[in-house]
Amino acid sequence: MGVMALCDASPPDGQLSPILGEIFLSLARHAEREIRKALSLRLAHADWAPAALVNVLALDEIEIAAPILASSPVLQDEDLLRILIEASLDHQILVARRPQLSGRVSDAVIERGVPAVLAALATNRTAQISGEGFRRLVEHSRRVAALRGPLLRHPGLNQALAEQMYQWVGAALRESISTRFQVDERKLGAAIYDVVDGVIRPDRSDEIPEETPEREEMERRLVAKLQSAGQLKPAILVRAAREKRFSLVIHGLSALSGFTVTQIRQALNSPTPEAFYYACASVSIDRAVFPTLLTEMRKLNRGLPGDQGNAVWQRGALSPSSAARAFRTLVDPDPSEQRIAV
Fold this sequence. Notes:
By secondary structure, the protein is an all-alpha fold.
């Protein structure tokens, strides 16, 4: 047909006239399925195609949208971000597989955390993924088994992240890690066991009842060891409070949240538990668990934080990022103390 012939020939000056662009757009909106599919195929590599038309086709049913999503140079980051939010899972997967995907879009895929889309991104060798983004992908692989194989074959995987993954992958993938990174399986396995066993069954004979500088330093080192092994999780803080390990809660919450130890202490010494709740929510401690944690911490801290103010944890769920922002508005900035680095 005549319109298809126009699709095959790019405009002489690389620009499509507004009138012809409107014709294409009207055709895409009202034409039958087979015509829209043919348009998508013909325009998939056209850098002169009207952006409005390309976006209409990109949001069409997946068989029509696929060529555009895979190849169209007209789609910009904003368009792809919109597709991640509005379109089907199949559309999102094709976005994650796009060649030369930008870091901005990769970050959005990782932030959304949809397993099938994450797996598609992990197989995309040309996607731009930051170091932090890759770390978060590895963390996602703890719950998304389909990520593990692609990540272990990805050139962006470094030895530190590989050793972290070693803790939760199966025997076959452990062998792959050992082969690629020359990991000593016996030493790494023993180190992981020591870390986990030390948290679950701490050596009571070595505990120091009082909160002394020596005990605080011991807990700080334990936090560093747990974090480097990928074993520092919010549940450990709740267990530590029950075991009366006050400094472990403080340093663990600081390491998980990124707030300084001084800021965490300020929240714990406040007349209201609001700041402490926001610090806990920022690391995804469940609000149903928070009252128990608060009770245990008050026993260890002379009744603080106090009971003034409202029970903010009863207001509803709060995202970690929102909780972090709320925490920062309630505590003083602490430029003198470095965040814990491990």
